[in-house]
Amino acid sequence: YREEEEKTLQTERDLINEVDVLLGGRAAEQVVFNEISTGAANDIQRATDTIRKMITAYGMSGRFKNVTLGKSGQGYGFGPAEPQLVREYSEETQKYIDEEIARIMAERFKHVLSLLKEKKHVMEYIANRLLEKETIEQHEFKEIIQAEADLAAKSVKAATEKSAKDPSVKSEKKPSAKNVKTAKTRSKTEV
Hints:
It contains 6 helices and no strands.
């Protein structure tokens, strides 16, 4: 993570993180409702565009590393907003681009879905918090995430210590939303 002021240039990791964030709404629908809706359509389009640009404009693909495919933003009209009407690469390359976009989208969606399933208790806590006060400021969101991370680390440490003493002990269960709230309150009072 880099501060917003430092993000005039985006790394490949920054762009992948952006795609993950954009897929978060769709993945949350899947986790909570076990179905998807049209609600994430714009985010999916933006994620697709980001991945397409990584491959065609930024030279961030396995096959075409450091190569730009096509003239960026050049069409038959006047200005950069005009659509690209002439493809400057083969159908085979277009097929590769389409398959690579689909592969990366599937890979990132799987990652985000897994993360949200693992952290469902935090997602539910945040959703309930949003129902209470409608918006959460960045600092509060960071406090919630940090409290959960601290609590998870303490749970892992306790489980490790417990299993060292008693090998029959498995692992501790994930922190509940109540424990996240308690840890968040503790971290505020400790500051």
